[in-house]
Design brief:
Layout (H helix, E strand, L loop, with lengths): L9 H4 L5 H20 L7 E5 L3 H12 L4 H15 L19 E7 L5 E7 L5 H11 L4 E3 H10 L11 H12 L10 E3 L6 E3 L12 H10 L12 E6 L5 E7 L20 E4 L3 E7 L1 H4 L4 H10 L4 H15 L5 E7 L4 E6 L3 E6 L7 E5 L2
Parallel strand pairs: 3-4
Antiparallel strand pairs: 1-7, 1-13, 2-3, 2-8, 5-6, 7-8, 9-10, 10-11, 11-12, 13-14
């Protein structure tokens, strides 16, 4: 910063100033300089989302472009996707579990305060992202689960209880039952009949044998057969508001035919999404059971904090998972404080959507493995 007297008008610089005047003038100049640095430089607001969820991005953009906060925009965008039942994997009416029931996982995170609200395996409530925000706003907790999360959401004014199944989800579930409940997420078990109940092999005595290395590898390899965009997906959204503040949010109805009670990476901060106002944000989608073991979005943000560009940070996070699980399916997007964004994926072709001030509408970016 220049010397104080060089910033003053000549007549003032030549005038003797007492200490109080100098303090007030210095404070005013610093405020102007800092205010310029924090003002909207034209790169904000920005909205980024997994997949071509165009209407969700547009909904978030309308909110943030009208001057509302990043958190407000994230909630509106994810809520739009829930209402539209994006890909059948967000909101009610999709991804039945083994009992034919649809449940909701959701998260919202404020990158300024680092507050998080989330719900998991939530039954009977269709508004996942709104319930997550209520957790953040009105409790000191981070995550509420199951029917207790439902009761909390209803007590805070959300509509319910509601049947989250649909004719489509029930038809899918019936066909799965007719196919002897295959594929499923069990391993190293013996079913009483084709659809269970299941018992661990080692509890049934040596006459049933043990799981060989070959069988184990077959279980791992077959995992990718029921993990794909249209049955195992999440909306993960990041928003910079006009002040450059960041928030992220996610919503999903989880993996199709999951074991009841399963919680994926959707409501786990650092896995499905993460934001830090000083650095940037990340969103993820894919096989949450694998990805949540690596906290890829936390990894992405921390890599960017250390100076890594978004494209390298995204690729690094994905490669860490692929080295351990070469057959996993998943993707991340990364965006830094400057608004530079990128994506990386493994096992499928990934698309993410962006809206920023220089665009007339949402633009979809395609990333190949």
């Amino acid at each position: 910063m220049k010397d104080l007297h060089s910033l003053l008008p000549h007549s003032m610089a030549a005038t003797h100033l007492n200490s109080a005047s100098i303090f007030l003038l210095t404070f005013s100049l610093l405020f102007l300089v800092m205010g310029h640095e924090a003002s909207n430089s034209g790169q904000y607001p920005v909205v980024v989302s997994t997949w071509p969820f165009l209407e969700a991005v547009r909904a978030a953009w309308r909110v943030v472009d009208n001057g509302f906060s990043a958190v407000d925009a994230v909630v509106e965008g994810c809520s739009a996707c829930e209402e539209l039942r994006c890909d059948g994997t967000v909101g009610p009416g999709g991804s039945p579990d083994e009992n034919g029931e649809t449940t909701i996982d959701a998260l919202v995170m404020d990158g300024v305060t680092m507050e998080v609200g989330a719900v998991a395996a939530m039954r009977y409530i269709k508004d996942g992202i709104k319930a997550a925000r209520l957790v953040m706003q009105y409790t000191e907790h981070t995550l509420l689960v199951g029917e207790q999360a439902s009761a909390f959401a209803i007590s805070m004014g959300l509509p319910g209880p509601t049947n989250l199944s649909s004719s489509e989800s029930m038809e899918k579930w019936i066909k799965w039952k007719e196919n002897h409940c295959q594929p499923n997420f069990w391993k190293d078990v013996v079913p009483v009949d084709s659809c269970g109940p299941y018992h661990a092999k080692h509890f049934l005595g040596s006459s049933h044998g043990t799981c060989s290395k070959t069988t184990l590898m077959e279980n791992i390899k077959s995992r990718s057969s029921h993990v794909g965009r249209h049955n195992h997906d999440t909306i993960s959204m990041a928003v910079f508001d006009k002040m450059g503040n960041i928030a992220v949010g996610t919503s999903t109805n989880g993996a199709t035919f999951k074991i009841p009670g399963r919680v994926g990476d959707g409501p786990i901060a650092g896995s499905s999404a993460y934001a830090d106002d000083e650095v940037g944000a990340c969103g993820a989608t894919g096989d949450g059971d694998i990805m949540m073991r690596f906290l890829p979005c936390y990894q992405v943000v921390e890599s960017m904090r250390l100076g890594m560009e978004p494209n390298l940070a995204a690729k690094d996070a994905i490669s860490r998972i692929a080295r351990k699980f070469p057959d996993f399916v998943g993707a991340v997007f990364a965006i830094n404080k400057k608004g530079v964004h990128a994506g990386a994926c493994h096992g499928w072709t990934f698309q993410y959507s962006v809206r920023s001030p220089e665009m007339d509408d949402v633009k979809v970016y395609t990333v190949v493995p």
